[in-house]
C-alpha cells in the first residue's frame, strides 16, 4: 500500500502548506486498507496532473486484485483547526481532488500522525516539517511547483529519483566534497562491491516496487502503469556500477537508470516527463521545476551544508 | 478528573461567576469501600481531586442515585454498569487503560461521527437525547475559550465513509453548538493507531449507547 499524506493548508489560506504523501507500508496484517494517492496542494496543477495516472494505477490494481486493498492512498494532513473543516471539504469537492482521508490536527504537529497513517512518503511545502519527518525516518520531500507544468502521462505514473542522498546515503557526496572528483572515483572503484548505505527515499521506492510486482505477477510487466527512473550524475562506466549493484542487492528494480556523467538533468527530465522528481540539491530541483517538472527537494545529507546553488554539475 | 478540574479552573478564570461548571460525584456500590468511607474521602482529598459529593449506594440502587443526582455523564470501568446506566438514558462511558495515559491538562472529548442522527427517525431513544443535550452543554462550555489553548478540546473521528460523511458529522455537531477542534476522516483506515495518538478521555457516540464497537 502506498499512502501519501498531503497538507492542504495552502488550499485554504493561500499559504504553502505541506503535502504529505503518506503511503502505508505493506504488511499491515490487521486488514490492509486502500491506499490511494492523492495530492492536495495550493497549486491546482500539483493535484491535477498526477491524478489521472494515480487513478489509472488504482483502477488497474483493482481489476487485477479485486479483493486487495493495496493501492495508492493519499491522506491530507493539516494543522488547521477543524472549524474550517467544512470549508476544506468543500474546497476538495470544488477542485475535484480525490481525497477521502484527512487529518485536521487543530494545531499540533502532524508528524505523529504520519506514523499512525503508516506514511510511505510525506510531501510538504514546509521544509521544516519535511526535516522533522526525515528525522523520524519517514521519506519526505519539500514540494516545488513549476510555473507551467509540462504534460505528463495519464496512463502511467512516472517517478524519478536522484541517487546519492536520496535513494542512497550521502557517503559518496561527502568524499567528493571533501576530497574532490579524483578521490571520489577512487573511492567508488575501491568500494565497487560494497553496498551503499540507504537514503531517505529508499523505502518509498520499495513501496512502489511492491505495487509494480503486483502487475508483473499478472504478466503485465511491459504494460506496467508505474515506472521508476534513476537520474544521477554518476557515470555508467564507473561510479554508476556501485549504484546498480546496491539496488540489485536490495532487491529493488528501477526501470530506467540514466547516468548523466555530470550533464544537466533538465533535458533528461524533459524527455522522461516524470510526475515527480526527487533530488537532494536545490540546484537540480529548481532546474527541474524550470523545465516544468514537479520537483521535490530532499533536505538530507552533506549537500544541505554547502551552497545549494551550484552553478555547474561535475561529472561523477 | 484533573482535566475536568482544569476546565473548571479556566472557566472560573474567564468568569468568576460562571455557573456552567463540571460537578463531580463519586459513587460506589462496593460495600467494603463504603465501610471505609472516610478513607475514600480522604484519599480523594489527598490526590487533589475535587469531588463535591460522595454517594454510597447498593448495586440495585445505583441507577436511582445517578438519576437523583441528575448525572449527565457516568464514567466507570465496569461494563455492566455502562449497559445498565445507558438503558435508563444516562450517557455512560467505559474507562480503560488508555484513559490513564491521557492528559491532565486538557480534557479531550472525542465524537464518533459515524452515527449521524437523522431528524426524521421517530422518537429518539433516551440515550440519544441525553447524549445530544450533554454535547450541547459541552459545546457551550467550549465557547467560553478561544480557538487555541483551550482546556477543553473536541475531536471528531469518522471511521467509515469518505469526506461527505465527515462533513455531515461536522455540520450536525455544529448545529448542536459543538465546534470541533480536530477532525479525522479515516475512511476505513484502522482506528487503533489514531486513538493511541489522539488520547481522548472519552468517546461520545452520537446516538448510540456507547457500547458499539
List the helices and strands and how they pair.
The complex is a heterodimer of chains A (316) and B (213).
Chain A: E1 2-6, H1 9-13, H2 44-48, H3 50-64, E2 72-78, H4 85-94, E3 101-104, H5 111-116, E4 121-124, H6 127-135, E5 140-144, E6 157-161, H7 171-190, H8 202-216, E7 226-232, H9 239-249, E8 256-259, H10 266-272, E9 276-279, H11 282-290, E10 295-297
Parallel strand pairs in A: 1-2, 1-4, 2-3, 4-5, 6-7, 6-9, 7-8, 9-10
Antiparallel strand pairs in A: 5-10
Chain B: H1 2-14, E1 25-28, H2 31-35, H3 37-46, E2 53-56, H4 62-68, E3 73-76, H5 79-87, E4 91-94, H6 97-100, E5 107-112, H7 126-143, E6 152-158, H8 163-175, E7 182-185, H9 191-198, E8 202-205
Parallel strand pairs in B: 1-2, 3-4, 5-6, 5-8, 6-7
Largest interface: A-B, 29 and 30 residues
Ranges of chain A with pLDDT <50 over ≥5 residues?
A: 7-46, 308-316
Strand content of chain A: 15-25%
Taking Cα atoms only, what radius of gyration of chain B do you get, to the nearest Å? 18 Å
How is the quaternary structure best described? Answer: heterodimer
Count of DSSP H/I helices of chain B: 9
Number of strands of chain B: 8
- Cα distance, first to last residue of chain B? 25 Å
C-alpha end-to-end distance of chain A: 35 Å
* Count of discrete domains of chain A: 2
- Percent range of helical residues of chain B: 40-55%
According to CATH, the fold-level topology of the largest domain in chain A is: Rossmann fold
Sheet with most strands of chain A: 10 strands, mixed
Q: Which class of secondary structure composition applies to the elements of chain B?
A: alpha/beta
Biggest β-sheet: strands ordered side by side in the sheet of chain A: 3-2-1-4-5-10-9-6-7-8
What is the global morphology of chain A? Answer: globular
Report strand % of chain B: 15-25%
Helical content of chain A stands at: 25-40%
Q: What is the overall number of helices of chain A?
A: 11
Protein name (chain B): Cytosolic 5'-nucleotidase 1B
Organism (chain A): Nibea albiflora
Protein name (chain A): Cytosolic 5'-nucleotidase 1A
